Each structure stands twice: as C-alpha cells, then as structure tokens.
Amino acid sequence: MAQPGDQLSEEKLCCSICRNLLKDPVTIPCGHSYCMSCIKRRWDEEDQKKVYSCPQCRRTFEPRPALIISTMLADLVEELKKAERERPQPHSGVVPFKKQKLGEASTQHPKKTCPHQLEVFCRTDHYCICYKCAFEQHKGHDTVSAAKEMAEKQKKLGGIRQDNKERIENVEKYVKQLQKEVEATSRSADKALENCEMMSTEIDRLTKKNADVKQQIKTDQEREVNRAKELQKKLQQELAALRRREDNLEKLSHTRDNVQFLRVYFSLPDISTSAIIPDINIRPLQHFDDVTTTVSDAIAKLKDSYGKELNKISGAVSKVYVLLPQDPRFQMDPNTASTTMVLSEENRKATSVQDDRSYPCHPDRFMDRPQVLSSRPLPSGPRYWEVLWGGLGVTVAVAYKGIARTGEESIFGNNDKSWALESVAKGAYSFNFKHNGKKISLSGPQFSRLGVYVDYKAGILSFYSVSETETITLLHKEKTTFTQPLYAGLGVFYKGSTAEFCAVK
Questions:
Q1: pTM above 0.70, yes or no
Q2: Which terminal Cβ of the chain has fewer Cβ within 10 Å, N or C?
C-alpha cells in the first residue's frame, strides 16, 4: 500500500507531459523537470517559432536550451522503482485505478480471489477498493463511494467534452475559412495571371506591329535610296556631256571667221530642255523626320503609361501581402523603449520627447537613441505590417534581440544585427536604407505610411511607401539570410516625431 509520503514523492517524480515516472529526466531553466524525449518532442513542435516554452509555467526561452540528464533525479526515480518492487502487494480486492484500461470492468474483485464488491474509491491512492480494505489498509484515507466519485467525474467529464466540442467547432470553422481564403486567393491569382497573359499577348501584337513598321521603313528607305542613286548616275552622265558641250561652245565663242562660226552654230543640237531633270521629283530632305518625331512621342507616352501601369500592377501584387495574418497583439516592449520617448495606444505608438522619462533600469533598454523593439519576435513565415508616421522623420527596422543598447552600434542599421529604412523630411523628401553601417540613398514618393514585408525562411526584406489610395511603391528589397529571431523596430530620432503600428487597410 502506498503511503501519503510515497504518493507525494511519486507525483513529484512524474512527467507532467506523459504522466509517467520520469525517464531520462532533464531539468529546464525554469526548474521544472520532464522526460528528455517528452520535452524534446514538445520543443520540436515549437521550432518554427524559435521560441520554446515550459508546459507548466509557460515561461519562454530563446534560444533553445540544451538538455542534460539530471543524475540526481534519475537516481531518485530508480530508488522509487526499487521501493515499489519491494513493497508488499495490496489486498486482492484492490484494483489499481491508474492501470485500468478504458472499458475494463472494475466493479468486482476477481471471483477466484475475493467475493467483495469494489464499492469504495480511495481518493488518497486513486484506487477502487472494497469495504474491507477501506477499514483496514486504507484506514484514515479520503474515501467515498465509487458511485459518488463516478458521478462527480462524469459531471466534470461533461464539461471537458463540451469544451473539447467547442474547440473542435472553432478549429473546423477556422479550417473552412482558411479553405475559402485559399480558394479565393487561387481564383484571384489565376484571373490576375490570365490578365497578365492577355497583356503579354497585346504587347506581342504591338511588338509585331512595330516590326512591320520597321520593315516598311527599311523597304521605303531602300527604294528611295536606289531611285536617288539611279537619278544621280544619269545626272552625272548628263553633267559630263554638258561640260563637254561647254568646252565646244567656249571654243566657238573665240572663232573670228564668220562663215565657220555660223556653220558650227547651226549644227549644234537643241539643249533648251533636258530628258532627265523633269523626271526628278524633289522631296524634302527630312521626309522621315515626321516618322522619327511620331515614334519618339510614342516611346515617351509608352514609357510614362506603361511604367505607371506596371507600378500599379506591382503595387497590387505587393498588396497581396496584406492577406497575410495580422497579429492584433503586435506591440512594443516598454522595457526596450528609450527614456527620450513615450509609448501610447496600448504600446503601439512611439513619440519622441524633449526630456528624459524616469523609466526603471532594464538591461534591454536603449540608452542613447529614441528607439524601441516589438514585444514578441516575428514568425518564421511571411509577414507584412504598416507604420503610420509623422514629424521630421522616423526609422522602421527589423533587428535581432542581441543588438547593442548603447553607443553608435545601438542605432538601427549601424550594425550587422539590424536592417533599417529612414524616412526623413528635410525640404526634399528622402529615404535611406541602412545595414551594417552602410547607407543606400533611395528615391520614391513619400507618404504617411511605410510598409514592411519579411519572409524569414526565404530571407526576403522589402520596404514600401503606401499612399492614402492604397498605391504601394517598392522602395528597397533586400535578399539575405536571417540567423536569429527578428523583432520589429521603430525609431523617432527627431523631437515630436511619431511612429505607430497601424491596421492594414
């Protein structure tokens, strides 16, 4: 028979996950102990989030703690098992409740060993027992009738089943919603691809038309050039004849003999008309200039229109990121906020202030710059969010939690642990992308909202400028490899500037 002290020791040496005695026991940083295989399997399921928790106290750890077998606990478990083996067996009328399988009868003793009914339940030892055992081996224990205990547990079981049914309904509902979203997204994407294909077909048609026009120009060019060369050849021949005639006329003009002069003069052929010159159709020298001007105008219009349309298409595609799950708890961590900023709107808005705030000391707090990190790391999958900003300028960033908290190395973008986009209003609007101390100046329309897209696994980071009409312009795209969990960051480096995580429209 298990004594209360023994029962307590057994409970302490049981794994809260599998409910059995600890096997290869390990103790995690919060002090709770589990079977190595149980906690390892549990944390394998949390690998995607890169945040690991204790099943009992829910404390989280980053990075994943190392698991080392506790020799002391292992020895205690072995001693408990040895004591169980050496302990005398209980009365044959006692059926261990823990070992009973679902559906197995436990209302009677085996007929061959004991005729008594199992009508009593020992709450101390969790055994179904007979009245004899209740007055002997289990004297002083918390005992009730088995029927009463069953009624109470059935009532409790009803509540558990109701909660489980509600969870099943909620999960099924969410699965159906996701399926509808998958189907709607697929239909929308297929339609968009179809339209893009139609646009490609139209572009191909215009390309063919352009090729036909080019061929026509080449044909006209060849015809006109050949015609001009043929006429040029004839004119050269006539020019040579005219020059020979001019030589003869010059000689005739020096003749002093009247008879000789008149004889030669009246023998000259009539040259008052030319057989060639009337056939020459004089055209303007720039007869292709109109084509050139027209094509140039078309190119300018095409670049302007086609470029704008492509930007619209790109913006529309980028806006698909908004379909990604948005976390309403996307907030900033007050323990990281600089003393020269205040948080409001449930820690979603940061404002730069003139005087230092009297915040409590904390190792995670930024000490030199008015900036702050999100309270939770970003998920490993695709993620999109927007920041509404005002004032002279702000910074939106993603960073590892290990970023420095003091000095120049703590500024977003000045180290290899953060990637930042600065939006600064100084007469002429401007953007800067910064990482590892290097800065890239960017151009683009500046609106009151900035969008950030992160795909941790794919190593993609993009920044956007978002207008009130939902037009999205890509400012910068970075392809890299992330090695640690990422946190969203906000910086309000100018007095009075504000930055707020806002709902995506």
A1: no
A2: C
